[in-house]
Write a structure and sequence with these properties.
By secondary structure, the protein is an all-alpha fold. The protein has four helices and no strands. Helix 3 packs across helix 4.
Amino acid sequence: MERSCSGVLNLFRFKLKWELGQTVGRYLNQWTPFIPKKSHTVADFTALTDSLFYGPERSDSSWTPEQKETVNGMIDLLEDLPDLKRHPREPHPLSGKLIQ
């Protein structure tokens, strides 16, 4: 399960660089201004990765239907997101990224 979530995060890195020390939640929250109606998917995926990466180890490695839906939803979001690596934009005020 962790490998699948890491793979999804790597796909997002094709569109926006991951900054040093940035948490999964902070990184993914940068996308919510672009997909406000689907921000729940980002929140669900963040909660999933937090529990997988930082929670207690599980001997059960099977996906629940909700977890599958969350991961598939994140993959579907990629299509709707701009390529911020090639076409950078000013940070949205809700992104949590400070303009210096």
